[in-house]
């Protein structure tokens, strides 16, 4: 692979992003789900739920960008962007 791609040998794997995300978010012992999101989940900018640490939330969401990079994940992100476009006012 080194001949085909520009890369560096960093040695044995000591870091895996998926595990690190779970550790940072306090979700290591969570019950696993088969699907990434509830099918009937309704999110609203007028939620009455308490606010969370915005920096921590952005950090977790940002980390997910590096964990999944498939066409169906991109489609889900685009759907979220279309939702943002609809609700920006």
Give a verbal description of the structure.
The N and C termini lie far apart (49 Å). The longest helix is centred in the C-terminal third of the chain and has 17 residues, at 71-87. The protein is mainly α. 44% of the residues lie in helices and 0% in strands. The model has no long low-confidence stretch (mean pLDDT 78). It has a domain at 52-89. The radius of gyration is 17 Å and the shape is extended. It is built from three helices and no strands.
How does the SSE layout of this entry go?
Elements: H1 17-24, H2 54-67, H3 71-87
Characterize this entry briefly:
Helices cover 44% and strands 0% of the residues. By secondary structure, it is mainly alpha-helical.
Rg from C-alpha positions?
17 Å
What percent of the residues sit in helical stretches (DSSP H or I)?
Answer: 40-55%
- Low-confidence region ranges: none
Mass-distribution shape: extended
Oligomer: single chain
Strand segment count? 0
Largest sheet: none
- Helix-strand sequence: HHH
What is the percentage of strand-forming residues? under 5%
From the N-terminal CA to the C-terminal CA, the straight-line distance is 49 Å
Q: Helix count, per DSSP?
A: 3
Task: Summarize model confidence as the mean pLDDT.
Answer: 78
Structural class, by secondary structure, is mainly alpha
Defining key terms:
mainly alpha, 0% strand, 89 residues
């Amino acid at each position: 692979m080194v001949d085909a791609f520009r890369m560096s040998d960093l040695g044995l794997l000591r870091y895996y992003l998926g595990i690190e995300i779970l550790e940072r978010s306090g979700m290591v012992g969570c019950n696993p789900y088969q699907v990434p999101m509830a099918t009937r989940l309704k999110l609203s900018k007028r939620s009455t739920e308490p606010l969370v640490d915005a920096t921590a939330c952005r950090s977790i969401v940002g980390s997910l960008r590096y964990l999944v990079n498939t066409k169906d994940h991109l489609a889900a992100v685009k759907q979220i962007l279309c939702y943002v476009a609809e609700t920006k006012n």
